[in-house]
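Subject: Predicted fold for Phospho-sugar mutase, 576 residues

User T.R. writes:
Posting the sequence so we have a shared reference for the thread.
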Amino acid sequence: MVLDTIDPDPPAPDAATILIHTANDWLSQDPDPETQAELRLLVRAAGDGDGAAIRELHTRFDERLAFGTAGLRGVIAAGSNRMNRVLVSQAAAGLAAYLRGAASPGSTPSVVIGYDGRKNSHVFATDTAAILAGAGVRAILLPRLLPTPVLAFAVRHLDASAGVMVTASHNPANDNGYKVYLGGADNGSQIVSPDDARIAAEILRVATEQRVPDLPRAAYETAPESVVQAYIDATADLAHRPRAQVNTVYTALHGVGWDTTRRVLEAAGFDLPTLVDAQIAPDGHFPTVVFPNPEEPGALDLSYETAREAGAELIIANDPDADRLAIAIPDPSSDTGYRRLSGNEVGAILGWRAAELATNAAGDGGANGTLACSIVSSPALQAVAAAYGLKFADTLTGFKWVSRAPDLIFGYEEALGYLVNPGTVRDKDGISAAVAMLSLVSDLKADGLTLADHLDRFSARFGHFASGQISVRVTDLTEIERVMTRLRQSPPSAVGSIRVDRVDDLSAGSNGLPPSDVLRIRLVDGSRVMVRPSGTEPKLKVYLDTSSTDGTVAERKAAAEAALAELDQGMRELIS
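User M.O. replies:
I've generated the structure tokens; pasting them so everyone works from the same file.
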């Protein structure tokens, strides 16, 4: 008789077997038929030894989509390193655990949830609301798809403990995201450290210890329309009755901005703009643009076409969730007939407006308050603050930092984000900024001036500030790391023909700023270059700033633009 023997040391499963097991475990938790079907095909192919399928599974499961100060953002697909219902459910349960732990004894935390018109935004929002409610948190879903600024407003208006906005802002069509705001002492600002790490730890605990089908769900509330109306009323109040009507064109870039913007403009007494019809209704496929970002080349082409037909004096564009604003003005020297103003130009003009309003409100007592912008934005705002005796704060990139500047009366970042009403919204708001800009242009028109004239007046009073940006999109993030390492280890002695004064590495923090992966290059002529990886896209971003206060406006422009061209060419050579 021969007895079977048991191998005391069976061979360990190979990496592919472990990977397929991980994918199957994820599959068993996924409530989404689309991502289920997609993952089943990959698992089946990987099980048959398909190398491409195995590599794809590795990209989806070797890492987890990081939850940070921008919340979550990524491509919609199955896997822990993608945006999907499993990941969102775990995030909701983790957020609930964090809020319950932070709540005072006997109190029930509350969360208001908003969503835009992107793919899966509504289902991610309702999953979040049901899981928060099931975890004992008061969950309040906004009544329909709405702009991000309405959600940011609602956190404060409803005195909620937190807010969640399901959006990927201006990312490509198949992306989505999950932004978290905190109420209370945070005044409805986006999360920052250490709260992001604490929430992330709770999300990871949920992912490790609980299964999505077992997470309790419960009924949630739907916010009344009065919340939206309160935002509309507060935003319309930013402008006085128009002294002159402005012939304007508006595009929503297939996003959710128009309905709310329309109601605000009507309440404020402005004539409604001519619409870019093909881009006005929410459409998560973004059929007329490659990237639904008004900064991207070609994004405003239909706006220019519409504006030429209408003889428009102003173009207003929101990004898909309407937290950003782009402005374009007539320019006979342009092939399109119009020129989009840079974020720094708009920020400087709106900052000047805010300083004037603060000064007029203060009377003889002198204006108080702070103008703030991110460290990669133009130094122009600091010049405005100095001229008006206001405080100035520069912050790390991102409105989570700009919105927290003490005594803030206006803040902006060069990526088309502006905060003109910090008393009601503590995030960038493309609708309120549009109202402020339209009110300014209306006043200028009543006085026989254009916005182009006003930009020249700015240069005459504060100096001419020229800004540029180099944006390098990569497929391999290690390329960005290599460039940053090279610039740190071998700092340039000159950029083009302009000598470098010093290079500041902000990775350890600087002047009270938290650590950040940013290099600041100061040049002997007063110019400045900032280099950093993008926080939301696979890009290396380089920001160039020059200025001149000598001579006429035309001479100032020429000097600043010449220096800018030199910096642009020099930096492209350094990062190539």
